[in-house]
Specification:
The chain is α/β, with parallel strands linked by helices and about 350 residues long. The protein has two domains: about 5-115 and about 355-360, 2-Layer Sandwich (Enolase-like, domain 1), CATH 3.30.390.10; about 120-355, Enolase-like C-terminal domain (TIM Barrel). Helix content is about 40%, strand content about 25%. The protein has twelve helices and 16 strands. The protein has an eight-stranded parallel beta sheet. It has a three-stranded antiparallel beta sheet with strand order 1-2-3. α5 runs parallel beside α6 and α7 runs parallel beside α8 (about 225-235). It starts with a strand and ends in a 7-residue tail after the last strand.
Length: about 350
Amino acid sequence: MKIIDIKLGHISVPLTTPFKTALRTVNSIENVVVKVITDTGNIGYGEAAPTAVITGDTLPSIRGAIEDCIKPQLIGLEIENLEEIMKRLDKSLLKNTSAKAAVDIAIYDLYGQLYKAPLYRLLGGYRKEITTDITISVNEPEEMAKDSLDAIKRGYKTLKIKVGKDAKIDLMRLKAIRDAVGYDIDLRLDANQGWKPKEAVLILRQMEDAGLDIELVEQPVLAHDFEGLKLVTNNVNIPVMADESMFSPKDAVRLLEMRAVDLVNIKLMKTGGIHNALKICSVAEIYGVECMMGCMLESKISVTAAVHLAAAKSIITKIDLDGPSLCSVDPFDGGALFKDEKILLTDQSGLGFKHISEESFK
C-alpha cells in the first residue's frame, strides 16, 4: 500500500451555540481535511484545526505546510513503513503541529486498513467505549447554570467549565453552576491561561473554601509559565492539568520532572498527531501521571482518531472529546459513534469512515 497522492479540502460545520473561552469565540468549525490516496485504492482521512491563538496554525499555513513541505516527503512511501513516514513527517518542517496531525491521522487510518483492524486495537485495544465530558462556554453565571442543566438533561455527568475571563466573576459562575446541578455532577475547570499564578491560587482556594468540589483545573496560567504552573500546583488541593503548556514529549518530561502539574492533556493538534501522542502516554506512564484526551474545535474526523487513541491506552483516564457533540450537524458517514456522553467504536478497519463527500475536496 503505497502513498501516491495527498489532497486537501475544507469543511464548514456550524456549532449549536457559540463556543466561548478566555481566548476566543467561535461560531462554526472551519477546518482543513486531508485525503491520503494509495495505489491500492485505499484512502486515509485526516483533519487539521486552525487554532492560531494556541498552536499558531491558520487555514492558509496548514495548506501551505502540507502542500509545500509534507506532501513531497511522503509520496512513494509504503504505509507499512510507519517509522520512516513519521520521521519524514516530523522533519519536514518545524512546528505546524496541526498540519502534521492531519497527515499523521490519515496515515494511521491507512495503517489500520492495511492490517484490516480498527486502529484502537493496533494501538493497545484497552476498551471500545469511553465517556466524555461536555464543555460549558464562559458566559454570565445564570446562563452557564442553565447550559449546565441542559447538558445534564442530555445525560452528561461531567461538565468542563470555561473560566479565566474575569476572576471575580469566575467564583460566582461556579457557585451558580454547583447550586443548579448539585454534587452528583463532576465539575472540571478550564482557565485557558486566563489567570496569573497568584491570582489562580487565590481563586482556587476560594473555590475550595466554598466547598465547590472541583475535580481539576486545566491550564490556569500562561502556557510558557512552567514555574507559575508549579506555584499553583504546590499551593492548592485541586489537581492542576497542563494543556497549552504541553505540545511535545519533551514538554511532558520537563513538566513532570519539575512536578509542575498533576495531570496532562493530550491533543492531537498540539502533538502533531498520534505518533507523538503515544510517546507522551509512555512518558506519563513512567511518571505515574494520568492523562486526559482532549480536542480543539474539531469535527468527527480527527476526534475519531483521538477516540481510538483514548480507547487504546489505560493511562488515558479522562476524556474531553465533545467536539462533534457541539456541532449542529454530522456531515460524515462512519467513524466513532457519538451518543451524548458515550462514545463507541466500531469494528471497521482504520478509523472506519465509509466515504467523505468529494465536495469537501473542491
